[in-house]
Amino acid sequence: MPGLGTSFGRGGATDFQQDLQNSDCIVIQGSNMAEAHPVGFQWVVEAKRRGATVIHVDPRFTRTSALADLHVPLRPGSDIAFLGGLVNYVLTEGKWFEEYVRCYTNASFLVREDFRDTEDLGGVFSGFDPDSGTYKTESWQYDGIRVGAEEQDEGEKREKYEEPGSGHQFGSGGAALDPGEPVKDLTLQHPRCVFQVLKRHFARYTPEAVADICGVPEPKFRAVAEALTAASGPDKTAAFVYSVGWTQHTVGVQYIRTAAILQLLLGNMGRPGGGVLALRGHASIQGSTDIPTLYNLLPGYIPMPHADRHESLDEFLRLNTPRGGFYGNMPAYLISLLKAYWGDAASPSNDFCFDYLPRLTGDHSTYPTVVKQIEGECKGYFLFGQNPAVGSSNGKLQRKGMANLEWLVVRDFSLIESATWWQDGPEIETGEMRTEDIGTEVFFLPAAAHTEKAGTFTNTQRLLQWRHQAVEPQGDQRSDLWFAFHLGRLIREKLAGSEDSMDRPVLDLTWDYPTRGAHDDPDPEAVLREINGWDADSKPLSGYTDLKDDGTTTCGCWIYCGCFADGVNQTARRKPWTEQSWVAPEWAWAWPLNRRILYNRASADPSGKPWSDAKALVWWDDGERKWTGHDVPDFAADKDPSYVPGASDRAEDNIAGTDPFVMQTDGKGWLYVPSGLADGPLPTHYEPHESPFANQLYERRANPARQMIARADNLSNPAGSDVFPYVVTTYRLTEHHTAGGMSRWLPYLAELQPEFFCEVSPELAAERGLTHLGWATIVSARAAIEAKVMVTSRISSLTIAGRRTHVVGLPYHWGPNGYVTGDAANDLLGVAMDPNVHIQESKVASCDIRPGRRPRGPASLRMVEDYRRRAGITIETGTDR
Questions:
Q1: 163-177 confidence digits (pLDDT tens)
Q2: Residues 524, 510: contact at Cβ < 8 Å?
Q3: pLDDT tens-place string over residues 523-574
């Protein structure tokens, strides 16, 4: 089904299945899992049958809520206040897992004396620069760790070239800590230790504050707190499950951080039935991140070099190789990747072709790129399976950008709106654009469906599952692999014989993939073999621990190393779960090294014994002198629990035998983040970029470090405006898929959800004169759109700060093309972003709603302009820091 989002194999266990099926409590927040991820939701249902408590925290009552033991409605954009209330409850009620927290987290580390919290500075942390909206993080560091000489030497370059949001380049381990040894207080009593800082920070997140900010009554909040803590400890574990309901916010990263803090305090990380589990929006979004479509990462979460910071391979490795943790092997990972790219051309004498890699010169993420299109800097655009004309926030901005390109290549199944905006887009109707004035040359190249090509899906639980080709593509349809390979082949043919050094990176690429079939399709297994890698004798590698930094190994993605071990496509394994252990390691392959639960050293106590028999996963076998268990240990197999690293030890050897978080440079779970985040070391409740309310906890209204694009074509609604008094949120339906490109052209699905609609509560319908199945117009500073009205008690009106607040719910699957058409919900939304990952805040904004259909043509523009005038909107509106 197109709405399932993530595919989960029934035949074998995964860490996702294990974490849910073995949970004693599952909190689903920021996700409508039953409808958006129905296949994966089977494990929630099975856990409930086994006695687990299922809690759904969401603004709407959905099918997920119907199957939950408890549904908790809350105001969109207030999740940190809710989660922060849970953190405060755990700390004040003494519900934290003391030995786990003391030994496995940074709770005992002392923070520098000059650090100031939001409690001290009215909602910002020390180091904030209001002019740039960025933080200098020196004061966030631990006591005893100096700002490294490297950072001092590179300070000017960092300031000039470090674009907002660079923190997420550092993968799961975060940014490397500066040299030094943190001062610790193992009693956790020192006022500057992380544990006490945490207690003070979350002290104001009381049940009363949660009720005022989120609209969650105190008894319901306490019911969640009691269920979660009762299901956590040595004998029990609880899991959090989220999706884009958390990520698509200006504080999205901090939403997830708050859940991680909770799970560390409760001892629910690295243990079966625990974790913070992400539900991806599509079947291989995880894979698209691992071998990235992200502009600032190389495969395996290796940072992309900066133009003026990384002038040589040595300089790059010096700045990006931490002393401890498995990222300490960065030289082996990167050099093996360079060998995969350029083969024999990459040698020690030329820095393994490091100079060939592209360089970052700033923020090249999606929305700044659109601005560059409008400003004439970006001339061409490839769209692979994307439909920004209706699928991205501020659709008008997207269409305006594409109208200023020289050329646009769209590869999709159908003539989506991003291929046809120039002839039938909303701006053609309003007269803002004329087809004859648009100079963009548009190429539409039909794509092959997943049934028409072979390859892997890498799912939310890091499981690579091979999918076999069922049928040949019809007509001119081709796979993305075919397109990329043959485009590269043709470019290389055109450049053949060139003596221009600028052409060498393309000409020296290893581009000799075998082809097959009538269309000369590259063999996808050959690509997977290259991703897995081989040694100097062309023997397939068995895992990332085999990688070398001397150029004798080749590997296209270090975390995938082992997926073709022994020359066998491990991702294609399909042994039924009935024929293997409950972990089912022979169903497909999970990165890294086929581990099903990350950081599983935390499933045992510091001495190496399981916390309990009920939750045993891996343990230290003293007789065999190695780690063993049900899963592949996520730890050096022969590292004794008593091991203490020496001063000269590096990488994994610098991690103690009691430190389970082996990707972190210090091996600890970070309750407090001293480096690597752009908007603070601790999560803080800020109001959304557009909100009817002031911040009830701090003087600062919205995230002061949020990324904004202040332009006349991206205006913002004023905070607390009576002109835009309602909250709007967006979501998906089971019957449609994302922007609708895979579902609006399918008659079977289109007839199940035939019209764009808005959900409103009976209270809001009465207040605004809306009638069930009638029409409504929803208005923001960007656009006016229309939708059929669904009056339903499934969407709650809430009491916030003593005032009744109404929410408008909008599914976002429609556009003007396909069997079923309608206005695009994303046209209503502006662009404001999380500063860490550049994801737009599309899950919450403010709006007005009125009965009747929207005006047509230029009259629609006049309506929006009238709203702007009455609200007093300028380019600077809403951009306060």
A1: 443 555 555 555 667
A2: no
A3: 999 999 999 999 999 999 999 999 999 999 999 999 999 999 999 999 999 9
Helix (H, G, I), strand (E, B) or coil at 680: coil
**Between β-strands 70-72 and 297-298, what pairing exists: parallel, antiparallel or unpaired?**
unpaired
pLDDT score, position 17:
62
Give the pLDDT confidence score for residue 161 in this predicted structure. Answer: 39
Q: Which amino acid is at 561?
A: C
Cβ pair 23, 17 in contact under 8 A:
no
Q: Which long-range contacts (CB under 8 A, 24 or more apart) does 617-625 make?
A: 617/271, 617/272
Query: Closest Cα partner for 723 from 747, 692, 752?
Result: 692
**The one-letter amino acid at 624:** E
Per DSSP, the three-state class of 112 is coil
Four-point Cα dihedral 327, 330, 333, 339, nearest 10: 170
The band of 10, judged by pLDDT with boundaries at 50, 70 and 90, is very low
Q: What is the dihedral of CA 614, 616, 622, 628, to 10 degrees?
A: 150
Neighbours of 480 (CB within 10 A): 14
Task: Decide: pTM greater than 0.85.
Answer: yes
User: Nearest-CA neighbor of 626 among 638, 612, 614?
Assistant: 638
What is the structure's pLDDT at 148? 44
CB 845 within 8 A of CB 764: no
Q: What CA–CA distance (Å, rounded) separates 521 from 478?
A: 9
The answer to whether 439 and 406 are in contact (CB under 8 A) is yes
Q: What SS3 class is residue 355?
A: helix
Q: Which residues lie closer than 8 Å to 634 by C-beta, 6 or more apart?
A: 270, 595, 597, 598, 599, 600, 601, 618, 660, 662
The identity of residue 122, as a single letter, is G
Sequence-distant (6+) residues with CB within 8 A of 264 are 100, 101, 104, 105, 669, 671
In the beta sheet, which residues pair with residue 808? 728
| AA identity, residue 55 | I
Measured in whole angstroms, the distance separating CA 413 from the mean position of its chain's CA atoms is 26
180 φ/ψ angles, rounded to the nearest 5 degrees: 130, 175
Return phi, psi of residue 278, to 5°: -90, 130
CB 522 within 8 A of CB 529: no
**Residue among 679, 703, 680, 683 nearest 691 (CA):** 703
Residue 766: is it exposed, middle or buried by C-beta count within 10 angstroms (0-12/13-18/19+)?
Answer: exposed
Neighbours of 551 (CB within 10 A): 15
Has residue 124 got a pLDDT over 90? yes
- Say if residues 824 and 785 touch (Cβ distance below 8 Å): yes
* pLDDT mean over 625-645: 98
What's the token pair of residue 718?
């004023």
CA dihedral of residues 180, 186, 192, 197 (deg, nearest 10) = 110
Q: Which residue has better confidence, 139 or 157?
A: 139
Residue 150 in this model has a pLDDT that exceeds 60: no
Give per-residue burial for 159-182: e unless 16+ CB within 10 Å, then b.
eebbbbbbbbbbbebbbbbbeeeb
